[in-house]
Amino acid sequence: MSVPAFNRFGVWAIYRFEMARALRTLWQSVVTPVITTSLYFVVFGGAIGSRMHDVGGVPYGAFIVPGLIMLSLFTQSLFNASFGIFFPKFTGTIYEVLSAPVSPFEIVMGYVGAAATKSVILGLIILATAALFVPMTILHPLWMAAFLVLIALAFSLFGFIIGIWGKNFEQIQFIPMLIVTPLTFLGGAFYSTDMLPQPWRTVTLFNPVVYLVSGFRWSFYGKGDVAVGVSLAATVGFLALCLVAIAWIFRTGYRLKT
To answer: What one-character DSSP code corresponds to residue 138?
Structure first.
C-alpha cells in the first residue's frame, strides 16, 4: 500500500488562515501583551527591583526578563492554539477540515505551527521591549532560541488539546487562567527557588513550570534553579506527552466527531 504524499498545500492553507486571524486582531495578539509586560518591567523591574539585591549575581530587573517572556509565551500559546481549533468546532466547520484530504498530523502542523509562530514572534518582541528597560546579556543565544521554540510548540500542543476538550469559551479559558498562570507565578518567574525556605523549596520542584522557566533563564545568565539537562528533558517530555494525547484524540475521535 502506498504512503499518502504530504499535503503541504493543506498545511499551508490552515497555517495562513490562522496567521491572517492574528493580523486581524493585532491589538489583542501583540500590542496588549507588550503593554502588559512593559508595566511589569516598570513595577517589578523599576519600583521594586531598585530596592532589591541582585539574584544570583543578576540585577533583579534583568532576572525577571526570562520569566516575563515565559509568562506571555505560556498564555499566548495556549490561547492561540485552543481558540484556533475550538472556533471551527463552535461553528461546525471542523467537519470540513476533518473530511478534507489532510491527515491528522497535517492538521496539527497547521494549527499548532501557526500558534507557535505567533508566540515566538511575541516572545522576541517582548525581549526587544525588555532591552529598552534593563541591560541584559544572553550567554547562550542558540539555547535561548531552542527553548523558546520548544516551549512554544509544547504549550501550543497543550492548547490544541484544551481547544478540543473545551465545550465552551469558559472551559478553554479555565486552564490558562486558573492553573497555568498561578503555576507560572509560583514557578520562579519572579524569584529564584533558592530564596524559599524548606520545605517549600522541595515542594516547588513538583511544579513543572519551574523546569521550563529555569532552562530558559539559564540560556540568558548561565544559572538556573535546576540543571539545564533536566529542564531540557522536562520540556521535551511535556511536548512528547502532548503529542501522545493528540494522537489518541484523533484515533478515538474524542470530542471531534460527535
So the answer is: -
Whether the ω angle into residue 182 lies within 30 degrees of 0, i.e. cis, is: no
Distance CA 32, CA 95 (A): 33
Can you tell me which residue has the cell 549575581? 57
Q: What is the pTM of this model?
A: 0.92
Evaluated on CA atoms 183, 188, 190, 196, the torsion sign reads positive
Say how many C-beta atoms besides its own lie within 10 A of residue 42's C-beta.
13
3-state secondary structure of 70: helix
Q: Cα(226)–Cα(115) distance, rounded to whole angstroms?
A: 28
**For the chain, what is the mean pLDDT?**
88
| Virtual torsion, Cα 15, 16, 17, 21, nearest 10 deg | 100
What is the tens place of the pLDDT at every residue in 49-88?
666 778 878 888 888 899 989 988 998 899 999 999 999 9
Going by the DSSP 8-state scheme, the letter that residue 59 receives in this structure is -
d(CA 17, CA 87): 13
